[in-house]
Amino acid sequence: MPRIVSLVPGATEIVCALGFEADLVGRSHSCDYPPSIQHLPAVTEPALDLTGSSREIDQRLQTVLRDGGSVWQVRDAALAELKPDILLTQFMCALGTVSPDEARRAAGDSQTAAPELISLTGKTTEGIAADIQRVAEKLRIPERGDRLIAELRQRMNRVVEQADALPEKPTVALVEWIDPLVAAGNWLPELVEMAGGVPLFGAAGQPSPWLEWDELWASDPDRIIILPCGFDIQRAGAEMPALARQPGWTTLRAVRDGHIYLTDGSQFFNRPGPRLVESLEILAEILHPDAFHLGHEGTGWTRYRE
């Protein structure tokens, strides 16, 4: 059986959902689901300080990128000791994962026979499904990939069919980073539409765009959903003062009506993998609370109260 090391949480979840958890021998420091994999050795670590405010983290990140550095670094000795046959990574944004180039360098330096590198590239729901199938084919169990994708699509279609029948389609601003403001792109605008909403910023399959406060204020969305990359609900809430002190905040429709929501972006929305379904369900609960009761309130999302 292959020895697998995953450098990205979404890939780890794909491997486990396909039934290969027992073949995982290493993970990234941010791979934490399912909880049963947390005993595995971590072969990565942050290369910059991720404490402090969103603004401070962003400033450090921009400095590192400007200087040609990397946000994450691979523990070469730890990787070499594990001798993986397959190394999984993905490059969606510089803050989120070890880049394919860094993974390729580490794999080449760590052992004589370099492992096969699989870099996930999905930026839409269909792209993520294709990644699942590609991993399944590399593991020589394509039928499991077909079955898993069919199960995920069935669950998602149930949400879509119910949401399509609802008359209200609230407008939605998805905030992927608070300070400076970044809207959500890639698969997330697509999920909003599937959940019965109208995304105001970002486009399916496209990178997350920078967002000016004046743009957000002028759009006056029905819902503002906060899902910062890498932050859980508590951490997202701690960053909210930077948004709530913007001029005109209290005049926004979503603020007046109590429709500001905090989500666990780290566990759900920022991970392209099987729990994309849970991300869709969370959005459906937020956008249509009278129609959807799927059990995610309190763990996947909560209403923000100042």
Structure, explained:
By secondary structure, the chain is an alpha/beta fold. It has two domains: 4-120, Nitrogenase molybdenum iron protein domain (Rossmann fold); 167-303, Nitrogenase molybdenum iron protein domain (Rossmann fold, 3-Layer(aba) Sandwich), CATH 3.40.50. Helices cover 39% and strands 14% of the residues. The protein contains twelve helices and twelve strands. Strands 7, 8, 9, 10, 11 and 12 form a six-stranded mixed beta sheet that branches. The protein has a four-stranded parallel beta sheet with strand order 2-1-5-6, with helices on both faces. The chain has a two-stranded antiparallel ribbon with strand order 3-4. The protein is globular and about 60 Å long. The model has no long low-confidence stretch (mean pLDDT 92).
List the helices and strands and how they pair.
Layout: E1 4-6, H1 9-17, E2 24-26, E3 44-46, H2 54-66, E4 72-74, H3 76-82, E5 86-90, H4 100-110, E6 116-120, H5 125-138, H6 142-164, E7 171-177, E8 182-183, H7 188-194, E9 198-199, H8 213-219, E10 223-226, H9 233-239, H10 241-244, H11 253-256, E11 260-263, H12 276-287, E12 301-303
Parallel strand pairs: 1-2, 1-5, 5-6, 7-9, 7-10, 10-11
Antiparallel strand pairs: 3-4, 7-8, 11-12
Helix pairs in contact: 3-4, 5-6, 6-12
Count of distinct structural domains? 2
Mean pLDDT: 92
* Distance N to C terminus: 52 Å
Succession of helices and strands: EHEEHEHEHEHHEEHEHEHHHEHE
What is the CATH topology descriptor of the largest domain? Rossmann fold
Low-confidence stretches: none
Q: Structural class, from secondary structure content?
A: alpha/beta
So what's the overall shape? globular
